[in-house]
């Protein structure tokens, strides 16, 4: 039996009068790879950022590994966030630190790892993402694809239980998208639970266990990639897919 | 007493008393001012030592020593009381404030007991009465006979002085230029910004004797015998101190000691001016540099700590702390540093006896903190929110995020602005000279007074300030480059 990792219960998020997430209740099981698709402004990013409470829900509950995290203090949240790695569209590497320092920072500060431990782990992760030769480089000298792979390695350094990807390839030049998706695909194969907001339909098709289509603040339709891409039931899903696939 | 400052300080004192502070009023039913001085064993006199032969500074074995007729008189008074004499220097304009706030027990600074001044302080009897003269350029000496020859010509006076009042009343058709220092007035005379300077005869003589380009004419002013002359100022109600001083003055007059004091002062002035090269006075400037750097360095450190704290308060979620920080920053930025210096020294000085140097450092540091706070705030706000989000998503706490991610980047961004603030501090700290802190500006005035040379000390001080700020600018530039280095490793 699969174990629920994240349980979302009547999640609502409003920015002022604008309801961005409208009563979402879903469960994400351990090992799931979920790809969230949908038009811009549909609430995908807000949904993802609500899961680790970078955005605080207006109402509703989110349980992570069985614990409701919506009522936690900032200090308790820090401990939850360690276990939820996040990768951003804009990479958000720390420009004042080398690649190695970027990856070592959180293990050393939060987990009190020694410099030697953190370095060994960081180098192993860099090897995993194919960038072991960039350990001493500063982010400004890397390409977008390289920066995003470092960002993934940085998130993995905290040994998270789930990885959240917020449009990880949207800011990349087309020729660099492949190298990042490859790393993510390998990660999925290794059994990591992943929630990926993306416009890469090929990736969704190949890697996802489930595809969620978000529209106007709700999960309008969900299913296996085959169900969503070959036989969408909802009119708005068809509409969206025909626009995206026509490109 | 310059009226502008008087108004400010009165307002300040009124404000303080509104806030519920007491102890401003030193008047007590039974006057114990003399007993108090005797108890502490020290008589503190305030003076503005830029007025030879009454009070001026000499280089006594490398040390600044205040000497002159007034100092000799003060020594005699202290001796008669059986206490030690301590001299506090400050701008002439601030002397009466010093009295009112208890910074000094008496003021001897060739001060004339005008009826205006009598309203705020008590005076001893006159210890000296002098004629009023006018200093002119020697080349023009034939053009002027007395005060009436200056119709339509600009005349120089020391601000807040008896001479300023006299000129206003009896030379009403001559526009006035008021400056705080006689050395500056002489400069104005030589560059024909004014055509004459009204000064007391001994003072005028001192300048004329040391400068062959100057000449002296008798002003022939009509003088009120009760107001013409010098007396010692005391806090209102300090009758026992006044009585003690009067006793000493009587003795000095009876023995004819003033004449002797004058000769001594003249001797000291001659030794002062035997070598007027700037090199001879290098120790003065060196001491000034030392104090300027000391004040700046301490203020920078305190300013950065305070500024960081204020910036975090302002950016934080706590509404009370936020409001406090905003109020502090706005208030400090909205009031002149000069007023803040006076507030700390005289205003807070009522409750705490803060030495001038410490008061200066406190004021400059508190002032700098407000500016640094705004620089740091802008630096923190310049860091994209994604940096914070990335750090927090890794499990770093708010504090760790600030320390390891946001602050180091912010520091790099604000470095030029911070550097600018530090360079301004070197220059702006010069304002502490008004309360007698011996910084570079103060020493510049000392050298001007001692050498009767106006321009050269200014040039020396200017060059020194430039070397200091340029040096600092270079050092800051070096660190800026080092911080940029992380982006240059392509």
TrEMBL record, chain A:
Q: Which UniProt keywords apply?
A: Amino-acid transport, ATP-binding, Cell membrane, Membrane, Nucleotide-binding, Transport
Report which superkingdom the organism of origin falls in. Answer: Bacteria
Q: What is its main location?
A: membrane
How is it placed in the membrane, per its record? Peripheral membrane protein
Can you name one GO molecular function term for this protein? ATP binding
ATP-binding listed as a keyword? yes
Domain ABC transporter stretches: 6-241
Q: Where in the cell is it found?
A: Cell membrane
Determine if ATP-binding is one of this entry's keywords. yes
Family recorded in the similarity comment: Belongs to the ABC transporter superfamily.
UniProt cross-references to PANTHER family, sorted A to Z: AMINO ACID IMPORT ATP-BINDING PROTEIN (PTHR43166), GLUTAMATE_ASPARTATE IMPORT ATP-BINDING PROTEIN GLTL (PTHR43166:SF9)
Q: What is this protein called?
A: Amino acid ABC transporter ATP-binding protein
Task: Give the species.
Answer: Lacticaseibacillus mingshuiensis
From TrEMBL, chain B:
InterPro entries, alphabetically?
AA_ABC_transptr_permease_3TM, ArtM/GltK/GlnP/TcyL/YhdX-like, MetI-like, MetI-like_sf, Solute-binding_3/MltF_N
CDD domains registered for this protein in UniProt: TM_PBP2
The primary location reported for this protein is: membrane
What SUPFAM superfamilies does the record point to? MetI-like, Periplasmic binding protein-like II
Q: Which family does it belong to?
A: Belongs to the binding-protein-dependent transport system permease family. HisMQ subfamily.
What keywords are assigned to this protein?
Amino-acid transport, Cell membrane, Membrane, Signal, Transmembrane, Transmembrane helix, Transport
Residues of the signal peptide: 1-29
Q: Which organism is it from?
A: Lacticaseibacillus yichunensis
What protein is this chain from? ABC transporter substrate-binding protein/permease
> How is it placed in the membrane, per its record?
Multi-pass membrane protein
**Ranges for the ABC transmembrane type-1 domain?**
289-476
Has UniProt tagged this entry with the keyword Transport? yes
Any Pfam family: SBP_bac_3
So where does this one cross the membrane?
Answer: 288-312, 343-366, 458-479
Instruction: Tell me the compartments it is located in.
Output: Cell membrane
